[in-house]
Write a structure and sequence with these properties.
The complex is a heterodimer of chains A (557) and B (315).
Chain A: E1 9-22, E2 25-39, E3 43-47, H1 54-60, E4 69-78, E5 81-82, H2 88-94, E6 99-102, H3 106-109, H4 116-126, H5 132-145, H6 151-154, H7 164-176, E7 182-186, H8 194-211, E8 214-219, H9 222-226, E9 231-236, E10 239-245, H10 246-251, H11 256-266, E11 283-291, E12 297-306, E13 311-315, H12 322-330, E14 337-342, E15 345-346, H13 356-361, E16 362-365, H14 369-372, H15 379-391, H16 395-408, H17 425-438, E17 443-447, H18 455-472, E18 475-480, H19 483-489, E19 492-497, E20 500-506, H20 507-510, H21 517-525, H22 533-556
Parallel strand pairs in A: 3-8, 3-9, 6-7, 7-8, 13-18, 13-19, 16-17, 17-18
Antiparallel strand pairs in A: 1-2, 1-4, 4-5, 9-10, 11-12, 11-14, 14-15, 19-20
Chain B: H1 2-28, H2 34-39, H3 45-55, H4 61-73, H5 87-122, H6 127-141, H7 144-158, H8 174-180, H9 182-207, H10 211-218, H11 223-231, H12 236-252, H13 255-261, H14 266-275, H15 279-306, H16 309-312
Classes of the chains: A alpha/beta (557), B mainly alpha (315).
């Protein structure tokens, strides 16, 4: 921000230390010796991977720690008063009118049993900042400011009656309701589609600028924070890695870790598959139509081809039908019409009618390894099951094969007796890959396999997948909303919009002008490191959106 | 949502039908039949056969079941064998007494249990929480007749505050009735409050782990408001179900308490009727109990459905 009143630190954090304490004694240190200060109207970006302590720091600004965590050192001065010395009542008075919080998932953070008005007006009214009627007027004004539909009536809705992007903005309205001095944004756009993220990000930025509110912006995405922060602090394992003006961190990072974060985002590695030509396609999906029990078609006339050694990316926003396409290919959702040929023969629509060999040759890796692995089984059972089921090998051989797969995944052999809970997120995803490979498939469907992982961990998973492809010649069907990844890993791409295929072919062709308008919208929405990126996107946005609408109308007719 | 409710209603009726079959079959397999019960000592094989023919008992059970059910559906339960009065007349005052005691106990127990449960959730792990958990566990573990006798010993015999006999008549005025039935009411409250209180506490605490509860704390709301306003409405469904089960118990399961306090309720009547082989009364009581049980659970089901804002306010 340009205009600043010097010397007016609203928040000053010094030597902050947060530890876990259990009944059995002290646990890990979550935040260690972190210091920063924040002036009125200024935005600091906290960046790092999961476990870096970003959220923990953000919450301490509200004098709050999660269960079992305790602030054990340092000061957190809000307007010159140490939050740690405040009484419980004083801390409560701080939350809302002093410091307000915006959580990652608005869907989970709004109470499902209360209307938006009730939840938003609660803060100013209970803190005695405004009377009920005034609070409502203020909420309506904020709704209008945040571009929410029907601002007068919007607040009468319940959270489930509002879309994800709108709800995230409603949460910003809730945080602003008591006119706080500081806003804490905790990964507020991470759960959103790229296209929605642009709009929400722009709304947040306007809000902060208009009200000259100070903000702590927590994210794992450097490109996002580049658009909004004046200062950036890079964190790792609870410690400060680098702290400085945003322009310096982005353009001339001093620390090696920061350089890696910046570099991965700017250049990236090329994992693209080398296409083998001349062979008939391994998988040919032709004019497939599918729907859930409703009349609405989720997949409408979609055709895709995958050859041996191919990596085909299916991209689109949530609700575009890309995951449904995976379910249709796998057979979990029987297709209504069209054909799916695999190795030249038509696959039966229903899973139950497919042969064991057909099942074996198409495997799947899931978005959330936490949910996809049975928590009560050891890795021997999880990875050994397909070996035994498809190949009927004796026990000793199953064990040997599981060990071999663990080695391929760069996992220690000792892990064979472990259960998923004892592994990190990236390790769990490797187990998911090992389980798919155990069936020795020709095609692996990867459903958003890196989106639940940290940037650098996800990068390693992509590298592993690429290596396996080079060694084994497996084809991948890659379902993702992350276009940066697509550009780097896929040699072919299919772009889906509302269950229809709007563009498809070689990645180089589809992702180069002239674009289909929707492809252009998606591509332009991927945050870039340049600090003026958001302004540029917003300037062109109206035009792009109009072109997409026109294209949709053409498709429908 | 209407479809959902209609579905529940249909299921409820089906359950009631199944219960009626069981009740009829149960009275069928009781030793001795209506004819022998009527004739008693004067029974000879000939007179029994004569009587059975007269009462229609020689016809197959299925035919008699349908006839009984048809009559019951229009409110005709036949005549009592013991008093020769219309069963409905026999039952009506007793049912009124039972419903009175049940509502009396429910009116005290439900708000008390919910309030105690919410307070236990607010001061979770504290002295109050532990004390209320201990006391309610105690009252739930002691058999209700013992609770009744203990209350009589102290509150009636020693202190003389309340009468030990709840011998109401149809023309006892309401104020007096409330005093007379105070001890049986208190006994029932002590028995059912524990269930509901513990369920309220447990389901509220489960909700307290949700992200929107953390959000409420981050909005600077005091804990009582977070519990009462934010957690409780989302914890309603399981609480409602336990309340329904306990209300059903108050109607159906109070025969022991009625016996202790000599209260003329429906449970007593049914036990008497069984010992007297008064089959029509037994059947009618059984059907009323089954109906009450099913109806309360049905209401609970619907209330639980209605407590879900997603169903109450569709997109």
């Amino acid at each position: 921000m340009s205009e600043r009143r010097a010397g007016e630190d609203i928040l000053r954090v010094e030597g902050l230390r947060v530890e876990v304490r259990t009944d059995r004694g002290p646990g890990p240190v979550l935040v260690d010796d972190v210091s920063f200060s924040l002036r009125r109207g200024e935005v600091i970006g906290l960046i790092g991977e999961s476990g870096a302590g970003k959220s923990t720091i953000g919450l301490t600004a509200l004098g709050y720690t999660r269960n079992g965590c305790f602030i054990t050192g340092g000061r957190i001065d809000f307007e010159g008063r140490d939050i740690r010395q405040m009484s419980a009542a004083e801390r409560r008075a701080l939350r809302g009118p002093g410091v307000a919080y915006i959580a990652q998932s608005a869907a989970a953070s709004f109470n499902p049993a209360m209307t938006l008005f009730e939840q938003i007006c609660e803060i100013p009214v209970l803190h005695g900042v405004m009377a009920a009627a005034e609070a409502k007027t203020e909420a309506i004004r904020l709704f209008r400011e945040l571009d929410l539909p029907e601002p007068e009536k919007f607040g009468n809705r319940y959270p489930h009656q509002v879309s994800g992007g709108q709800l995230q903005r409603a949460m910003a309205a809730m945080a602003m309701a008591a006119r706080p001095d500081i806003l804490v944004f905790d990964e507020p756009t991470t759960a959103l589609d790229v296209t929605t993220q642009v709009e929400v990000l722009a709304a947040f930025r306007t809000l902060i600028r208009e009200h000259r509110t100070a903000a702590i912006y927590i994210t794992h995405d450097l490109a996002v924070v580049a658009q909004i922060a004046d200062h950036i602090m890079v964190l790792r394992f609870g410690k400060m890695v680098e702290y400085g003006p945003a322009a310096q961190i982005l353009a001339a990072p001093r620390e090696d870790y920061t350089r890696r974060l910046v570099a991965d985002r700017v250049a990236g590695h090329d994992f693209r598959a080398l296409r083998t030509v001349g062979e008939p396609p391994l998988l040919r999906v032709s004019n497939v139509v599918a729907s859930y029990r409703s009349l609405l078609r989720v997949i409408d006339d979609v055709s895709v081809e995958v050859s041996r050694g191919d990596t085909v990316a299916v991209v689109g926003e949530s609700g575009s039908g890309k995951s449904t396409l995976a379910r249709v290919i796998i057979g979990l959702l029987p297709r209504e019409s069209g054909d799916i040929r695999f190795r030249g023969e038509s696959l039966p629509p229903q899973l139950a009618r497919r042969s064991k060999d057909q099942l074996r040759r198409i495997q799947m890796i899931y978005q959330m390894p936490d949910v996809a692995l049975n928590p009560n089984q050891t890795l021997l059972e999880i990875i050994g099951r397909p070996v035994q089921f498809y190949f009927g090998r004796p026990r000793a051989e199953v064990r040997a094969r599981v060990l071999e797969l663990l080695r391929m995944m760069d996992l220690p052999e000792a892990f064979i007796a472990r259960k998923p809970a004892e592994l990190s997120g990236g390790q769990k995803q490797r187990v998911g890959i090992a389980r798919a490979l155990a069936a020795e498939p020709d095609l692996i469907i990867c459903d958003e396999v890196t989106s639940a992982l940290d940037q650098l961990v996800g990068e390693e998973i992509l590298r592993l997948l690429k290596r396996l492809q080079d060694e084994l010649g497996i084809a991948y069907l890659f379902i993702t909303h992350d276009l940066g990844t697509v550009r780097r890993i896929a040699n072919k791409v299919a772009v889906m919009l509302k269950g229809r295929l709007v563009a498809g072919g070689d990645t180089a062709t589809v992702f180069a002008p002239p674009y289909h308008p929707y492809t252009e919208l998606l591509l332009s929405s991927v945050p870039e490191m340049r600090r003026d990126w958001l302004d540029e996107v917003l300037a062109r946005r109206g035009e792009t959106l109009k072109a997409v609408r026109d294209a949709q109308i053409r498709l429908a007719s | 949502m209407l479809r959902l409710i209609a579905q529940r209603l249909g299921l409820g009726l089906l359950t009631l039908l199944a219960a009626s079959v069981l009740i009829f079959a149960g009275t069928e397999i009781l030793p001795g039949d209506l004819a022998s019960a009527v004739l008693q000592n004067t029974a000879t094989p000939e007179s029994l056969a004569e009587m059975r023919k007269e009462l229609g008992l020689d016809r197959p059970a299925a035919v008699r079941y349908v006839e009984w059910l048809g009559n019951a559906a229009v409110g005709d339960f036949g005549r009592s064998l013991a008093s020769h009065r219309d069963v409905v007349e026999e039952i009506a005052p007793r049912l009124r007494n039972t419903l009175f005691l049940a509502s009396y106990a429910a009116l005290v127990a439900v708000p008390l249990a919910v309030a105690l449960g919410l307070m236990a959730a607010i001061w979770q792990g504290g002295v109050y929480d532990r004390a209320v958990n201990f006391v309610t566990l105690l009252t739930i573990s002691v058999p209700e007749y013992l609770v009744g006798y203990i209350l009589i010993k102290y509150l009636s015999v020693h202190l003389g505050w309340f009468p030990s006999l709840a011998n109401v008549t149809p023309d006892t005025p309401l104020v007096q009735r409330i005093g007379l039935t105070f001890l049986p009411m208190l006994t029932l409250v002590l028995v059912v409050v524990a269930h509901m209180m513990r369920m309220t506490r447990a389901s509220v605490l489960q909700i307290m782990a949700s992200p929107y509860i953390e959000m409420a704390f981050l909005k600077g709301l005091p804990k009582w408001r977070v519990v009462v306003r934010h957690a409780f409405p989302n914890a309603l469904a399981p609480i409602i179900n336990v309340i329904a089960l306990d209300l059903a118990y108050l109607i159906v399961g109070v025969v022991i308490v009625e016996a202790v306090f000599v209260y003329p309720g429906l449970g007593q009547l049914m036990v008497d009727a069984v010992s007297k082989h008064d089959v029509p009364v037994v059947q009618a009581c059984g059907l009323i109990f089954a109906g009450a049980f099913i109806l309360l659970n049905l209401i609970a089901d619907m209330a639980a459905i209605l407590s879900n804002p997603r169903l109450r306010h569709p997109r």
